[in-house]
Amino acid sequence: MDSPSRDRSVLGRRSVLRLIAAAPVVAALTTACSSAPDEPDQLLALAEAAKSDAQLAKAVAQAHAKLAEVANEIANARSTHADALQQEIDRVNPRDPEDPPSVPEAAPQQAPGSAGAASQALSDALGAAQDQASKLVPGLPGYRAGLVGSISASCASLLEVLG
């Protein structure tokens, strides 16, 4: 006759041992799949550069009438880039709406004194943004690669408009 305590047990000794043995594997898998990032988002630097470029372009537009139209276009485009990057950063790593944006606003900038120097500053900023974005594209997953590739192409187009 079996003892009453054995009949009431739902899990046998071997089942309990299997569960204990599987616990580290389950813990490792749930840790690997967590959404908490260990390092900063790769798009943060791009978004910060976009905001900074937009501020530079606004300063150039105000200081140099000859460059105002092109500089305003650059400012609008780079602001749009910054917004798109911020949305993607927030999509991957949602933040509390009460928290400030993960990409801080750029400080206002002063335009270089001459129109030639201002045009060169915008050209250098756009070239750097294009290079930075194009270097990131191969290591990014699908949608992010498309977004960053589009930003790189946009910067190249803006460089052509700037002349």
Give an overview of the whole structure.
This protein is an all-alpha fold. It has a single domain, classed as Up-down Bundle (Ferritin). Helices cover 70% and strands 0% of the residues. It is built from 6 helices and no strands. It has helices at residues 4-8, 13-32, 43-63, 68-92, 115-136, 142-162. α3 (43-63) runs antiparallel to α4. It is elongated and about 85 Å long. The chain starts with a helix and ends with a helix. The model is unreliable at 27-36 (pLDDT under 50).
Features:
0% strand, 163 residues, Ferritin, mainly alpha
Topology:
Elements: H1 4-8, H2 13-32, H3 43-63, H4 68-92, H5 115-136, H6 142-162
Biggest β-sheet: count, sense, barrel?
none
Q: How much helicity do the residues have?
A: 55-70%
Reported CATH architecture: Up-down Bundle
What is the CATH level 1 assignment? Answer: Mainly Alpha
Approximate shape: elongated
What gap, in angstroms, lies between the N and C termini?
95 Å
